[in-house]
Amino acid sequence: PSEPPSARTAEAKAVQKIGTVISHCVELGPTLVLWLFDSTPSATELTKEVAAAAERFYESAETAATLSAEGQPLLTSIIVFGEQPRLLFDEPTAELGRIKEALRKRVPATGGREMPLTAVKQGIESYLPLRTSNERELVVVLVTDEAGHDPQVCDELVELARRQLIPVYVIGLP
Question: What 8-state DSSP symbol labels residue 7?
Fold first, then answer.
């Protein structure tokens, strides 16, 4: 059987590779995946493609079983950002329905500037207690079509991610 056309895009292939990384992390221990989606108008097509691919990842038999497993070995949180990051869940979730709903949600950005590095840094800082206290792996996936207007945050973010051994994956344009 052939894949649907959208499953053959570069973005879909990137999500498949990241899905493999997520599965390996879950084998190591409980894992939180933090997705950060650029919600500016220029990123609409990119984020739709990635969200659809992410939804296919979560709907796969293996991932769906992991989500429903005892002890919540796989949690997910989703942040959308433009100038300001916005959490779509109060707490990370393992509920497939909530994850799919959030992946389909389109939240228009406010302001005219994209702040992807700030969003990633704030996201990591928000969930760092789960990484340190709960010994949960943390995987960060940034989806954006811009380098952003916050390059001054880059060195701090790299140091934070490196110190905490948190992989940060980027899908999109630099």
Answer: G
